[in-house]
Specification:
It is a single chain. The protein is α+β, with helices and mostly antiparallel strands. The protein contains one helix and four strands, in the order αββββ. The chain has a four-stranded mixed beta sheet. 11% of the residues are buried.
Amino acid sequence: MNQAQETARALRVKDKYESDLLAKANVLGVGVGYRHRAGLPTREICLIVMVRRKVSAADLAPDDRIPAQIDGVPVDVHEIGEVRARA
């Protein structure tokens, strides 16, 4: 599968599951982009789930855990902190 096809597939999965992901504790946003490893972007397309802060799976209710992949699309969790409007 080429990168355009992977991106289109990831966007379909995002559209299908975005509301479910946003309902989880700590989740602020969902997007599609490149997976990061050791702080650096790779060329792997994934769903990006943005959270206030990363929490260990043991500290989350089962329904609030974010899966490693959804419908075969990898998921990458990014900690973004608090989001505040600027004046």
